[in-house]
Design goal:
single chain; mainly alpha; Serine Threonine Protein Phosphatase 5, Tetratricopeptide repeat; two-stranded antiparallel ribbon; 2 strands; Ankyrin_rpt-contain_sf; repeat; Ankyrin_rpt; Regulatory factor X-associated ankyrin-containing protein; ANK repeat
Length: 259
């Protein structure tokens, strides 16, 4: 289960054809060709028109993808059994973390051998995988077991950035409680706030701003969070940032002097 090579820059590139978005209420549905994998975009690519707020889901866009078994889709649909035991036994600790298979994941962790922060070929730890796929209970479990939320993958991907890209606000808050760098940047110059804006995740943007995310940081493409919101037509995200800037400005002025 290796992610493909990342190729997309953090730019709107509005002239490219807009990809189709999957149902925002169930972004992990099988792809139309009924293949045995579903995809989750990690990094920005060409957007469609303004997308409704989907903090509990991730926009499934074309570009650079992570792939995982449709057992996750079945579990998300409410099926009691997500996969046959034989199938689960064959999964790595990283796959189990991505799919939220807590029982089998804990069995792996009990074996020791420093598996809690074990990186895969790309440098992704179980916590990074769980954060990327929005598995909040798995994230909680891994943090309780001592997973390090500060670890960066080989291209500086972080659990916080990938959770922000998916709009997983609760996971973002959990990670921020562990004092991770809120302005951490990756190979693309992308920060958690830039990725939250890029995904049009209003609540996630609010959470990051409330904890002091830097609005002035530019991606390698030269776009700031506000630039992206304006270029992509994300009005709600833009309004959240404008309101935040106004509050910052007012706080520097202090209370008005009585006449």
């Amino acid at each position: 289960m290796e992610p493909t090579q990342l190729a997309e820059n953090l730019t709107p590139n509005q002239q490219s054809p807009a990809p189709e978005l999957e149902d925002p209420e169930d972004p992990r549905d099988e792809s139309p060709d009924s293949s045995d994998t579903v995809v989750l975009s990690l990094f920005p690519c060409t957007p469609e028109a303004v997308n409704p707020e989907a903090d509990a889901s991730a926009s499934s866009l074309h570009g650079s993808f992570l792939k995982h078994s449709t057992t996750l889709t079945n579990r998300q649909r409410g099926n009691e059994v997500s996969a046959l035991p034989a199938t689960l036994d064959s999964l790595s600790i990283h796959q189990l973390a991505a799919q939220g298979e807590l029982s089998q994941l804990k069995d792996h962790l009990r074996k020791g051998d420093n598996l809690i922060n074990k990186p895969d070929e790309r440098g992704f730890t179980p916590l990074i995988w769980a954060s990327a796929f929005g598995e909040i209970e798995t994230v909680r479990c891994l943090l309780d077991w001592g997973a390090d939320p500060h670890i960066l993958a080989k291209e500086r991907e972080s659990a916080l950035s990938l959770a922000s890209m998916g709009g997983y606000t609760d996971i973002v808050r959990l990670l921020l409680e562990r004092d991770v760098d809120i302005n951490i940047y990756d190979w693309n110059g992308g920060t958690p706030l830039l990725y939250a804006v890029r995904g049009n995740h209003v609540k996630c943007v609010e959470a990051l701003l409330a904890r002091g995310a830097d609005l002035t940081t530019e991606a390698d493409s030269g776009y700031t969070p506000m630039d992206l919101a304006v270029a992509l037509g994300y009005r709600k995200v833009q309004q959240v940032m404008e309101s935040h800037i106004l509050k910052l400005f007012q706080s520097t002025l202090g209370p008005a002097d009585p006449e």
